[in-house]
Amino acid sequence: xxxxxxxxxxxxxxxxxxxxxxxxxxxxxxxxxxxxxxxxxxxxxxxxxxxxxxxxxxxxxxxxxxxxxxxxxxxxxxxxxxxxxxxxxxxxxxxxxxxxxxxxxxxxxxxxxxxxxxxxxxxxxxxxxxxxxxxxxxxxxxxxxxxxxxxxxxxxxxxxxxxxxxxxxxxxxxxxxxxxxxxxxxxxxxxxxxxxxxxxxxxxxxxxxxxxxxxxxxxxxxxxxxxxxxxxxxxxxxxxxxxxxxxxxxxxxxxxxxxxxxxxxxxxxxxxxxxxxxxxxxxxxxxxxxxxxxxxxxxxxxx
Length: 303
What we know:
The structure is a single chain. The chain has 3 domains: 6-77, Winged helix-like DNA-binding domain superfamily/Winged helix DNA-binding domain (Arc Repressor Mutant, subunit A, Orthogonal Bundle); 91-185, Phosphorylase Kinase, domain 1 (2-Layer Sandwich), CATH 3.30.200.20; 190-297, Orthogonal Bundle (Transferase(Phosphotransferase), domain 1). Helices cover 38% and strands 19% of the residues. It is built from 9 helices and 13 strands. It has helices spanning 14-26, 38-42, 46-58, 76-90, 147-165, 202-218, 254-272, 282-290, 294-297, and strands at 33-34, 62-66, 70-74, 95-102, 106-112, 116-122, 174-178, 181-185, 190-191, 221-222, 231-234, 237-240, 247-248. The strands form 4 sheets. The chain has a 5-stranded antiparallel beta sheet with strand order 4-5-6-8-7. A 3-stranded antiparallel beta sheet has the order 1-3-2. Strands 9-11-12 form a 3-stranded antiparallel beta sheet, with helices on one face. Helix 1 (14-26) packs across helix 3, helix 6 packs antiparallel against helix 7 and helix 7 packs across helix 8 (282-290).
């Protein structure tokens, strides 16, 4: 898990952020930024660079490597610090609170703003930089090798999709985005995987989720990673989240992704509630969604 650096932001000085930003700029060209390039990228003197390196390295915001040359790169904590500093400068957030969720590809925190909201840091590439699945549109057009790029592209893609879908589809309202970080409304309710549903609730809730999948398709998107782990269930309805891997309905594999989403959702309910959720023709449900007819037939009339 990446350490929360919110408590350290107030101890950093403007010149510290100049250095971190300079390393960020240098990482556009190389994974490790040469020490000799840092004054140019950060617009600091060589003496100030030395002082700022020590301060930031002590706080775990950058790391050093010396092989053929002395080089530096940001850690995820350093990248978090840059994004968080920007949000504070914009007046978008006042304080970072407790974690709401930690996963392989994102960390989410409660944030105090004009109301409680959620701050999501994308972590793609945290464990190691790897070839991201090419079905993900935010990396499909680039061979860039930096995890900063991958994480930032994921955040930009998710913000774009949420902005297109909200409020017509039950997704979190996007508020702001910077680098690999995304501000959005905090969701109410509980994750579907942890929800204790009454037997009579199973089919109606599945129907609600599939209706939102249908609304998203009508708006031009397929989630492409639907499961019980990216749906929140509350008394007022459902919310679908985690959209960075979404594809447009004109994507060559959109039909396959849509059917996979339907299979994942129906399969989960069939395993958890076999008596209430009978076998369903997932291909027929997917066809109805593509044809814009799902809202008039319901989930199980398509089976």
